[in-house]
Amino acid sequence: MANYKIQSWIIFGVLAVLTSLYFSNLYAASIVSSVAIAALLAGSLRFVMLIGELNFAIAAFVGIGAYSAGVATTMLDISFFLAIILSGIVACIISVIFGSITLRSGGPYFLLIGFAFTEAMRIMFSKMEVLGKTSGMIGIFPPLWLDDWLSLSAVIICLILLFALYAIEKSQFGIILRSIRDNPDVTRTVGVNVLYWKVACFSVASFCAGVAGALQAFSNNVISPGDFSYLLAVFVLAYVKVGGESSIAGSILGAVFLVLLGEFALSMGAGEHIFYGSAIVIAVLFMREGIIGIVFSVIGRIRITRTAKESRA
Amino acid sequence: MELLLQLIVTTLQISAVYILFSLGLTLIFGVMQIVNFAHGHYFAISALITVYFMPWLVAAGFPAAGAYILSGAFGVLVAALLGLATYYFGFRYFQRDMVGSFILSVGFVLLFDGLFLELFGGAARSVPSLVEGTVSAFGVYITGQRLLLCAAAVSTAFILYLILMKTKLGLALRAVSIDQEAAMLQGIPYNKIALAGFMLAAVLAGIAGALIAPVSIVTPAIGADYIVKGFIAVIIGGLGSIPGAIVGALFVAVIEAFGGYYYGASTATVATFFLVIVFLLFRPKGLFGNG
Q1: Does the structure's ipTM exceed the value 0.90?
Q2: CB A17 within 8 A of CB A152
Q3: Of residues B124, B132, B99, B153, the one with CA closest to residue B44
Q4: Which chain A residue has the Cα nearest residue B284?
Q5: Which pLDDT score is estimated for A268?
Q6: Cβ separation A116–B93 shorter than 8 A
Q7: Which of A154, A178, A214, B234 holds its CA 20 to 30 A away from the CA of B147?
Q8: Do the domain assignments include residue A269?
Q9: What average pLDDT score do residues A206-212 get?
Q10: Which of B256, B276, B35, B103 is nearest to A117 (CA)?
Q11: What is the pLDDT at residue B135?
């Protein structure tokens, strides 16, 4: 039986829920939702990294989720929670088709085609009459009774999905994914259908990306094609790299840290591009394991000195 | 018939710049196994500097052609320096690490995007025309300026092809891209060759930028469009393959010229993407790719 670290998750979950309850004014609540969405996206991007692939199509799937939610709410009158699940499913279905073609070669091909897919989807959003062309869609409101609780529901949904990603990573599924990353050929020789599991991994991650997109649509009420350019994927990558990709806690930490710091830096008038760009360069060059790596090494050092003292005593 | 010829000429014009671009990308990938998204910014800085300095030199009394050559050469030099800086402080540590180098290059992309915007401002610029008049043959019209630049791009691509195929440096570059360890066993100094390949690619991007400056509207974001097209070209041709990069660039240019004429530019871009997806169905590693 895998160790799911239930205690840490419960503490973290309670803290997150309390935070979202504490910040009730509109601006703070919107920051809480964007932190939660960013954390979910970071978890999704990192999940595909488990098979050693970098998923730059994530921005496209966020966009697909957001537009699905927009269509479901403003045109089809589908209820809030159903619309969110539906957005995830739409993203998931498209990702299965996309993944089963592009993941056959993987590596740089998958990465670059994902990038091109993001750009192609962005152009398609801005060309389609139904989706409001370049001005996008407006009036994507959650139901009235939920208005005050939107950031709380966003936090809870993101927590559930993040825990699901964590649980999958710790299960047999996760072991297969990591073995594919370490050596796909050896994995194939023991009878694992590598492509099948890669696509499964990619579709789970894309489901999360779609849900994150829907949450973003509901929390901003307005979406436009420009929100889903490749820059979105770059920002998510920054969360994962700065936080540290060795564990899901790192990705969450990176998302929280960078979104809050970014909000602060933007209020100081710094350019968003320069801020995120230098964050990525510094993280990649000087702290390969990210913030979580530093945290772990500090904890490790404390443990070593403690055991050293105990053994001396 | 005349329309067809006109479109073919347009294709050749577009493809000349794409070829320079995708040759650089495939060269870097082949030698160092890195995916460099900042490549578009070597191109952009060169175009920006050309556009910035040429009117200034013209105002100082230089003839237009002299001013263009001087400012273009300065642009290429700055592009090369930028390439050297990114290599020395970054990519040097990420050879053969595709994901790591890509993430680093994306960081550079954001950083340079912001810096260029601060330095040059967001306004679109263009330069005074170099050569007046149009050339017409068989009912096809092309401005003298474009013809000249097209010729320059084609000859640059040809010179690069000769360097890669006929010189010792080219032989070493190709050897390293086929099998790095075997090449090192033969006494090829890998680090020197990697730097040479990287700089060659950066200079190519710089030349492409200086060439595109007079015939296009230059903004700090000009690199982004070309990098996407360049990478699509390289994917079609197969990463690391030199003939593949040329064929891929031609393919992208054909879709852009013909599709753009009949259905509009953005439809052509989306079509390029879907055609690449269909293409990958049959050739997952591109036309000439094997690794």
Answers
A1: no
A2: yes
A3: B124
A4: A105
A5: 66
A6: no
A7: B234
A8: no
A9: 93
A10: B276
A11: 67
At A137, phi and psi to the nearest 5?
A: -115, 145
- Of B162, A115, B14, the C-alpha closest to B22 is B14
* B42-53 tens-digit pLDDT: 989 998 898 888
Q: How far is A7 from chain B (nearest CA, A)?
A: 33
- Contact criterion met (CB < 8 Å) for A281 and B118: no
The answer to whether B114 and A269 are in contact (CB under 8 A) is no
* Radius of gyration, CA atoms only, chain A: 20
| Residue A309 falls inside a structural domain | no
Decide if A165 is inside a domain. Answer: yes
How high is the pLDDT of residue B154? 82
Per-residue pLDDT for A2 more than 60? no
- What are the chain A neighbours of B284 within 8 Å (beta carbons)? 104-105, 109
A101 CA to chain B: closest CA distance, Å? 6
Count of domains observed in chain A: 1
Whole-number Å distance between alpha carbons of B260 and B266: 8
Domain that holds residue A41: 6-230
* Contact at CB, A280 and B284, closer than 8 angstroms: no
- A305 domain residue, yes or no: no
Q: What is the reported pLDDT for A40?
A: 92
- Encoded tokens for A180: 């594919």
Which letter does DSSP use for residue A142 in this model? Answer: P
Residue type, A163: F
Query: B4 or B196, which is more confident?
Result: B196
Do A102 and B273 make contact, defined as CB atoms within 8 angstroms?
A: no
Identify the residue with better confidence: B143 or A303.
Answer: A303
Q: Say which of B107, B235, B286 has its CB closest to residue A277.
A: B107
One-letter amino acid of A59: A
Tell me the residues of B at the A interface, defined by beta carbons under 8 Å apart.
29, 35, 89-90, 93, 98-100, 102-104, 106-115, 117-118, 228, 231-232, 234-235, 239, 266-267, 269-270, 272-274, 276-277, 280-281, 284-286
pTM of the model: 0.83
Name the band, by pLDDT with cuts 50, 70 and 90, for residue B291: very low
Instruction: Name the pairing type of β-strands B134-137 and B140-143.
Output: antiparallel
Q: Which residues of A touch B117 (CB under 8 A)?
A: 271, 273
Distance CA A70, CA A224 (A): 11
